[in-house]
Amino acid sequence: MAASSRQVALNASTATLLWVTESTPAATAGHFQAHDAGDPVPMIVQNIDAAIVIYLGPSSMTDTTVGFPLAAGASLPSNVVGSDSMYAIAASGTPKAAVLSGRQ
After folding, report:
1. pLDDT one-digit tens code per residue, 55-79
2. Euclidean distance between CA atoms 89 and 53, whole angstroms
3. What range does the domain containing 71 cover?
4. CATH of the domain at 32
5. pTM over cut 0.85
6. What span, in angstroms and rounded, lies between the C-alpha atoms of 64 and 78?
7. How many structural domains are present in the chain?
8. How far is residue 100 CA from its own chain's centroid?
């Protein structure tokens, strides 16, 4: 599997899908297919904004029920398995998250 990447625009009102693990995801801008369910794939999410915190978590996040904070410039590695998905929401404004997936 070659490396694959995407930058996803976020906002402060609606959680945005960063990736979904399924073999045939919806062909919607911003969705990132990790790989088939049950096949672990290394992923990295980076907050590429210079000042705005983003939050990672489930689709139910809102501007008042936020998830795991990812500081400006910070990154979080993860192994995606099973039926994983990850959403992000901005503390304010419209920052971007970068998602990188791949194996050697």
Report:
1. 999 888 876 777 899 999 999 998 8
2. 9
3. 4-101
4. 2.60.120.770
5. no
6. 25
7. 1
8. 9
